[in-house]
């Protein structure tokens, strides 16, 4: 992503941003002092039962913040024929909503009508990273829950979700429109150290890449062949795919090391090596995990401050508007 854009750009081109001064880490210290303990224990229990939960919560928070700001709109269910964000093509593979539901139920029992679903999701993503061996940080809190959730927002202008097939120009523009920099792009991409990608997200890199090549030449040949065995040309198994990192349940800098070895899964990952500025950051984070973790924390906090707009509330049930 590019150097952080000027505030005037954010105001003009990112109209659903609003001042972030209301967010603070001690927001619930008096009104719900046990909030963080409740969320942490809920996430920890879920992760013990399902090792995919950490990646799913981190991805969910990212997808929430990138559409209408961090307002828990991704948690809303469709209403009648009106499809919600979670029904949009990039979000139909989102999972682990039940973790947020369970945390919300416990929080409501102690602090009714006080804590937003958006704050619970931000805390859950942080705890997912920490419980996977990654860093922790103080989450700014005080978000409210949005009341609008549209499936089309995930794929249509002005602010669709980044595509796994995006090139560097598209990624740079996508992040800058949200007030995020090139450094944020590279650091947040490191979240791919956790997780899994379905075959359809990278099929075009391993089959019929172009008119003359079957495989993307930027891929390590043996790695490409292993992907082809996992995802054959006429694969009909929609759940098939590959982990994004060889240590998919551990938060580390392996993602960057593999990227430099030609073992990245997605076009959007490979794109980070096509710009000298982002490539330099990839090398930096591949060399030093501490530098990656410091950058990741800063970028997660910055992303989590993307604010929603319009009427907001504190939902009692994260899936429905009050």
Automatic annotation (TrEMBL):
<dbReference type="InterPro" id="IPR010255">
    <property type="entry name" value="Haem_peroxidase_sf"/>
</dbReference>
<keyword id="KW-0106">Calcium</keyword>
<keyword id="KW-0408">Iron</keyword>
<dbReference type="InterPro" id="IPR000823">
    <property type="entry name" value="Peroxidase_pln"/>
</dbReference>
<feature type="binding site">
    <location>
        <position position="162"/>
    </location>
    <ligand>
        <name>substrate</name>
    </ligand>
</feature>
<feature type="domain" description="Plant heme peroxidase family profile">
    <location>
        <begin position="22"/>
        <end position="322"/>
    </location>
</feature>
<dbReference type="InterPro" id="IPR033905">
    <property type="entry name" value="Secretory_peroxidase"/>
</dbReference>
<feature type="binding site">
    <location>
        <position position="71"/>
    </location>
    <ligand>
        <name>Ca(2+) 1</name>
    </ligand>
</feature>
<feature type="disulfide bond">
    <location>
        <begin position="32"/>
        <end position="111"/>
    </location>
</feature>
<feature type="binding site" description="axial binding residue">
    <location>
        <position position="192"/>
    </location>
    <ligand>
        <name>heme b</name>
    </ligand>
</feature>
<feature type="binding site">
    <location>
        <position position="193"/>
    </location>
    <ligand>
        <name>Ca(2+) 2</name>
    </ligand>
</feature>
<keyword id="KW-0575">Peroxidase</keyword>
<feature type="binding site">
    <location>
        <position position="252"/>
    </location>
    <ligand>
        <name>Ca(2+) 2</name>
    </ligand>
</feature>
<feature type="binding site">
    <location>
        <position position="64"/>
    </location>
    <ligand>
        <name>Ca(2+) 1</name>
    </ligand>
</feature>
<keyword id="KW-0479">Metal-binding</keyword>
<keyword id="KW-0376">Hydrogen peroxide</keyword>
<dbReference type="GO" id="GO:0020037">
    <property type="term" value="F:heme binding"/>
</dbReference>
<feature type="binding site">
    <location>
        <position position="85"/>
    </location>
    <ligand>
        <name>Ca(2+) 1</name>
    </ligand>
</feature>
<comment type="function">
    <text>Removal of H(2)O(2), oxidation of toxic reductants, biosynthesis and degradation of lignin, suberization, auxin catabolism, response to environmental stresses such as wounding, pathogen attack and oxidative stress. These functions might be dependent on each isozyme/isoform in each plant tissue.</text>
</comment>
<dbReference type="InterPro" id="IPR019793">
    <property type="entry name" value="Peroxidases_heam-ligand_BS"/>
</dbReference>
<keyword id="KW-0349">Heme</keyword>
<keyword id="KW-0325">Glycoprotein</keyword>
<dbReference type="GO" id="GO:0006979">
    <property type="term" value="P:response to oxidative stress"/>
</dbReference>
<feature type="disulfide bond">
    <location>
        <begin position="65"/>
        <end position="70"/>
    </location>
</feature>
<dbReference type="InterPro" id="IPR019794">
    <property type="entry name" value="Peroxidases_AS"/>
</dbReference>
<feature type="binding site">
    <location>
        <position position="245"/>
    </location>
    <ligand>
        <name>Ca(2+) 2</name>
    </ligand>
</feature>
<comment type="similarity">
    <text>Belongs to the peroxidase family. Classical plant (class III) peroxidase subfamily.</text>
</comment>
<dbReference type="GO" id="GO:0005576">
    <property type="term" value="C:extracellular region"/>
</dbReference>
<feature type="binding site">
    <location>
        <position position="69"/>
    </location>
    <ligand>
        <name>Ca(2+) 1</name>
    </ligand>
</feature>
<protein>
    <recommendedName>
        <fullName>Peroxidase</fullName>
        <ecNumber>1.11.1.7</ecNumber>
    </recommendedName>
</protein>
<feature type="binding site">
    <location>
        <position position="247"/>
    </location>
    <ligand>
        <name>Ca(2+) 2</name>
    </ligand>
</feature>
<keyword id="KW-0560">Oxidoreductase</keyword>
<feature type="binding site">
    <location>
        <position position="73"/>
    </location>
    <ligand>
        <name>Ca(2+) 1</name>
    </ligand>
</feature>
<comment type="similarity">
    <text>Belongs to the peroxidase family. Ascorbate peroxidase subfamily.</text>
</comment>
<dbReference type="Pfam" id="PF00141">
    <property type="entry name" value="peroxidase"/>
</dbReference>
<feature type="disulfide bond">
    <location>
        <begin position="117"/>
        <end position="318"/>
    </location>
</feature>
<keyword id="KW-1015">Disulfide bond</keyword>
<dbReference type="InterPro" id="IPR002016">
    <property type="entry name" value="Haem_peroxidase"/>
</dbReference>
<feature type="active site" description="Proton acceptor">
    <location>
        <position position="63"/>
    </location>
</feature>
<feature type="site" description="Transition state stabilizer">
    <location>
        <position position="59"/>
    </location>
</feature>
<dbReference type="GO" id="GO:0140825">
    <property type="term" value="F:lactoperoxidase activity"/>
</dbReference>
<feature type="disulfide bond">
    <location>
        <begin position="199"/>
        <end position="231"/>
    </location>
</feature>
